[in-house]
Amino acid sequence: MTRTRVIPLPLLIRPDTLFEDSKQYPPIDLIRSFKAIDQSTLTDSKMRYSLSAALFGLAAIPFAAAATQSITPHDSFSSSIGVLGCKINTNRVAYWPGMPDCNNFCKKVTNTNSGQSTYLLHIDSSGGAYDISYDAWVYLQNGGTAAQTPLMGGGINMEVEDAPPSECAHLLDGGKMPFTAQNGANFYTSCMNSNSWIGNNNALYGITNMACTLGVDEICSMTDYGQPVCPSGFAHLNDPLAGHTVYNIQYGTGLSIPAV
Predict the structure, then answer these.
(1) Which end of the chain is more exposed for a tag (fewer CB within 10 A), N or C?
(2) Transmembrane ranges (predicted)?
(3) Residue-level pLDDT, tens digit, the chain, 260 residues
């Protein structure tokens, strides 16, 4: 029988007081103690812990075990949390139920029939469907691309499970989650207020929309009072942005269509 080692936590914090004082929570000594821990020693691969929950002293929460879901194709990029399509691999996105999380955003999907598996970024929500990028849906069936073999069909039962954020880092430009300063500030700020993976691995840009057709490709910052600041200011929010086109792979044809 596999044994799971649980690290006792010295402090419990009520969830309703979690962000009352950003200087107080999470306790710096607790953060340092967890940084010193080799996370691979805590548990086996099926019972990974959410580091953010542990840092806040709530409890050691395991990632969800693999479950079977009907996986359907999605051929139009979007992100409810303001992630820029030109700074990620839009062919590996999960459009799933529930809000994306500052730590638990990387998902692994496996087609047990074909033996194919891939990692996806959960950066958008659905009303209940387990949609994934059309290209990923094709890849999980035959190991090819949607441009080469534009398969058609509906839901296919596959195994889905949470994965460590590091497994999705290669899907991000520079290994950082990229946000638009205009429309991604709320989620960005919530992650910055925690010692989460996204809180420590992110970039804020002056690009106005997720399809990267407007704005300026420059790094911005966030003030202590939650106001984004960009080198060019915000006079160029509606300026056309060239060379950053986000493409959708059209369902059934495999054609690359500019996103809007």
Answers:
(1) N
(2) 49-67
(3) 433 333 333 333 333 333 333 333 333 333 333 333 343 333 333 333 333 333 333 333 345 678 999 999 999 999 999 999 999 999 999 999 999 999 999 999 999 999 999 999 999 999 899 999 999 999 999 999 999 999 999 999 999 999 999 999 999 999 999 999 987 778 999 998 888 999 999 999 999 999 999 999 999 999 888 889 999 988 889 999 999 999 999 999 999 999 98
Q: Residues, the chain, total?
A: 260
Contact 56, 26 (CB under 8 A): yes
Domain ranges (residues) in the chain: 22-55, 67-169, 173-229
pTM of this prediction? Answer: 0.75
